[in-house]
């Protein structure tokens, strides 16, 4: 019942975020909150006009304000859109400036953490039950590594696992990031779907990684870990591991329903080298479990002989079983740490593996971050230097495979990597280099 003139007066005192929120109340508020006069003042306070209109009066020249023409010749909401587009462009400029410097070891931007903060990016998971109702989980802890970020969600109000059908992972960015304060959860935000997971028959359809006294861990591709309470078979926490390679694009450029599609790589043909695509690779490997880092290293000059191409894969040997000078010790006992408000634990013999494989130009070629587990091998160690149990860790996706062999030394209480081999899909190599293996 309040007159529109009074509402307009009240709206004129609001900032941009509050004005956008008010416009979501009803249609009447939406039309009033689109007023060009209010938005032009907000726009002008942030972005000074770079041009003026010049008119001739007798023998004098004077500048005329654009306000009148800008108000009457524009459709309602014009200056709101201009303000939003300009703000988004300013944030993109800041982020691009931060991600431009590249780390020579990882081939990735050096300031990923700063870029994520500048964009206001956060992540949420949306659980949908079998009746179509959505449950949004926002409270998350972040852990940054050299090449990935690990996100942990936990709550005392998880829906019952039996009624859940899907889980969606979203990147969320504020529509108008404000660098001076944390983004408001009630403010206007954009969602970008990163992945969708089906939770029906979770324990049967996913990979069991291990358990401690309280929880069981299950892995879902790509890079999602679900912890279930042992006694109740309900969700205790969810952990996502996201590699920095194309993280910002996947988390910001998709829509609320469609994932961001990566542009295809254009192969660079090379007629000079007959073994183009078989050598010059570099690997950055990070093995960690929550707050602990067990191994972080870079391996250069990896190559594959033509005779090592078999069954649709190129073989890249990083650590050879026969060369004990390159065998690698791990720091600490492997395990994946987790923590909620009330409980915490450590699941042994599993960890997060970050792989960043670069081509000969230093460009990221194959990247992933995923939870993996160690399995006790039935064969005994045949190495003279190592007398202990052998464990294996395997990972595979559509682009390649990783095979790791470790030996546990009881005397020194440490693991040694004695064999580490990458298998790269020939289809990926052919598409990347324009070759035919």
From TrEMBL:
PROSITE patterns: FBOX. SUPFAM superfamilies: F-box domain. InterPro entries: F-box-like_dom_sf, F-box_dom. Gene3D superfamilies: 1.20.1280.50. GO terms for cellular component: SCF ubiquitin ligase complex. Residues 1-42 form the F-box domain. Transmembrane segments: none annotated. PANTHER family: F-BOX ONLY PROTEIN 15. This is FBX15 protein. It comes from Cepphus grylle (Black guillemot). The gene is Fbxo15.
